Amino acid sequence: MSSLRKSRLLLMIFSLALGAAVITQAVLTAEAVQRIFVEQATLDSIMLLLGTLLAVMMIRTLLMYGNGKVGLHMAARAKTQMRAIVLQHLTRASMFSSLQGQTGGKVSVALDAVDEADSYFSQYTPRMMEAAIIPILLLTAAFTLHANTGWIMLCTAPFIPLFMILVGLQTKHKSEEKYEQLALFSGTFLDSLQGLVTLKLFGRAERQQQEIERSSLGFRDATMSILKIAFTNTFMLEAIVMLSIGIVALELALQLLVFQSMTFHTAFLVLLLVPEFYSLLKNTGTAFHSGRTSMGAIRKIEHMIEETDMSSHLIQSRPEATGASDENASASSVSSVAPTIELESLRFHYGTAGFELNIQQLELRAGEQIAIVGKSGSGKTTLLHIISGLLQPTSGTVLINGRPFSQSREADWFSQISYITQHPYIFAGTLAENITIGAWKNVSRQDIEEAAEQAGLAGMIAGLENGLDTPVGEAGRGLSGGEKQRLALARAFLKRPAVILFDEPTVGLDLQTERILQRSITSLARNATMITVAHRLYTIQQADRILFMADGVLTDQGTHQELIQRLPAYAEMVHMQQKGGIA
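The line above is the sequence of Thiol reductant ABC exporter subunit CydD; the predicted structure tokens follow.
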């Protein structure tokens, strides 16, 4: 903020000096014309005058350059700060808000919208500072030289800012619409690129191409609407300026030729100042249009930040500090003891008419091995997401060691858990870099190697020329499904969480790979609470307690034998698995 105030003070000083330079240039030009064409002075006698005029013109050029340079520096600093704020909000937002919206739309705001805000600082702010100072100086000079001209300028000048305001309001609305279309187009385009293989396999690539074309045409129409307003704005400003200058010129001609009440020198000087006055207002109008367009981009950034804050109910409890110190503080506050998790009167629904989860009372004791079973769509994964903190319940409470989850720092909870899905995301980078994502503190090379060995990756790594430094492609390209799961387990071994959540990570793997993973999972869960969305009978039988879900409701809970005896739906599910040979 202090640097911004300094820049504005510098703009004000430059604008004052620029106003003085404009008036001085007009005075010297009028004097040179008077002496050459009226007084018939020799060239030698006016060399000093012409030299001074040239120096003033150079000073004016340097001042205009300085104003522009200050504006560019302001824009660069502002864009850096805005981009940092956007990234900070995205990284520190709750997991629930991070899951909302399209990735492409967020990328569009962080890159395109921030860049579009440039003209507000580089053009709009310097021009507005000039418009606040120089026209007053020119108007004062006009009143001093010829009062009638001053009154004409004073009466006609308000039409320019009035028209600017009317156009600017419409431009801001159109600009916001433009960035909505850009975010939609960016999101659709990025989604299509990420799912291009799937689209081709299902023969939907051509239809998605049409969807991208529709989004791009919407963005084009929004952009053309702004350009239409810009061209109209330019035409109207030119018309107003030319009409105003024409009125002043007519009045000066009458005073000079008809009434002969003023000299040529004065009339010519006034005629030099008047176009400067209106030209400055016209340029301000153009800059105002660009500024309002930039305001639409800035409003889009603010809107995204507001949405992030609203959906992130933990945002107020987070500390302001970021970086390694915050991360280490979170890690230091983590308890290695598995917590007790309680759900009370919990409800969650996807939309008003969508699926609803309803859990009246559930306690998950520390160190338990819990399996969640039920048919597809019964709410198993939704329940796991709520326990993990990925989703916020519509109503009800999640208690961690008797304390409401909403009163805890999200980072503290995530530092205690590991969530391994069926398709863990593998980033572009080395194997070691992907494993260390699970670390909440500085780890040694030996720690990474031990985590990889415990996850069953030692054999694979030993066969690679670069070992842990072997690069893998984005989304794990080059790794098999089992290797991706073991890499995710290695992250968990490095982290040593108190709570481990599994969304049946062994589904779709061959029997040998599944057994390797099961041994690793058993080893990892010895000192932790493990909650698994289970499909395999082997996993279900090994659980301390089984939660049976049906249509979003916790129907029953108990051991494998207890549920077989008292819950026909569970007994039928087990029978179908045994009949199908799924063990």
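Note on the example: The radius of gyration is 35 Å. Residues 2-313 form a domain with the ABC transporter transmembrane region fold fold (CATH 1.20.1560.10).
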